[in-house]
Hints:
Layout lengths: L2 E19 L2 E15 L2 E7 L12 H18 L6 H7 L7 H18 L4 H5 L5 E3 L1 E4 L5 H14 L3 E5 L6 H11 L4 E5 L9 H5 L9 E2 L7 H10 L4 E3 L6 H10 L4 E4 L1 H4 L2 H14 L3 E3 L6 H11 L31 E3 L12 H7 E8 L1
Parallel strand pairs: 5-6, 6-7, 7-8, 8-9, 9-10, 10-11
Antiparallel strand pairs: 1-2, 1-13, 2-3, 4-12
Helix pairs in contact: 1-3, 2-3, 5-6, 9-11
Bound molecules: 2-succinylbenzoate and magnesium ion (MG).
Amino acid sequence: MKLEAVELIRLDVPLKSTFRTSEGAVNVHEVVWVHAITDVGEGWAECAANGLPDYSSEFHTGAALVLKEFLIPNLMKLGNDLTAEAVAPSLHWVKGHRMAKAAIETALLDAQLRAANTSLATYLGAVKETVPAGVSVGIMDSLPELLKFVEGYLAEGYLRIKLKIQPGWDYEPVKLIREAFGPDLMLQVDANTAYTRDDFDLLKRLDEFNLLLIEQPIEEEDILGHARLAEYIETPVCLDESIVSADIARDAIELGAAEIINIKPSRVGGYIESVKIHDVAQAAGIPVWCGGMLETGIGRAANLALAALPNFTLPGDTSASNRYFAVDTTEPFVLVDGHISVPTGPGIGVDPIREIVDGYTVSTEWVKR
Ligand code: OSB
Ligand code: MG
């Protein structure tokens, strides 16, 4: 296929309620969409980089700039030789910027698969029609507020709860939720790097709650530290921020730092690299699950396709549209018996609803040949 033009759309999508992690709080989902126009048709992707570089070094305005200055012109130069599979090798010379790379690769993959009348799920190797859904619960102002939110999510049918933690908001909230909902609740925590190697005893106190996992307790660069922690505590250590490629995944597994892996396609440069991580983990007997970056329907659809692969044996953060948004940018994803349906249509299987997208649009920019 040939890349003719790309529309970069900046969206501000309001959240239903504030989402707070150890890295900061957000009220608006700030993202850039990549709308690729090719000679075989159009493709869509949501770039997961949000407003601030507080989860990774990427942020939405930076991602848009890298796309416009380097990634898109490079892919346009390939002419008719462009395929979705050729994107990562041709952009390999650009260091980092994986969320920006993931977005253009996904938009092109969407275009390519729509033209071939194949779903992304089929292309990636999906084996399930629906996937079990978990929900990520932010840090709250009080314990009663936390209890109210978790109660609500469980009433909706979510199958597992992930509590965001940080120093000062860890032992007590976990104890409260474990005691309120009993030993059978699938419960896990995510620290988003908020702890250090000096906090191992504090983290060991969480062992008594029989958590499914603890996600990214310490610095993303500190793989060895996670391996030491994994030896020290009973709770399985799961890596998120640290795992930026299949090579790093392989090394982290070998070191004993990753007993479980959260795969976020955006963080690792796209869906093709995600399948490689899935395969590396599967071969090593390491379970994976699909994380999220508060994606609206365009991004959520693609994550659901990935979450349908066989080694995604734990519920993901692939929650329903109404977890974050009053009105999604596509047909909303809904929770049915704790599961969400994997899209079956060609490509990512959903289309933007233009009138709704227009309402969220802050600016639009065209990059042309
Ligand atoms: O660490 O998994 C994370 C959201 C933004 C940035 C990082 C993370 C998260 C979440 C929510 O936990 C995931 C989601 O529901 O999309
Ligand atoms: Mg995380």
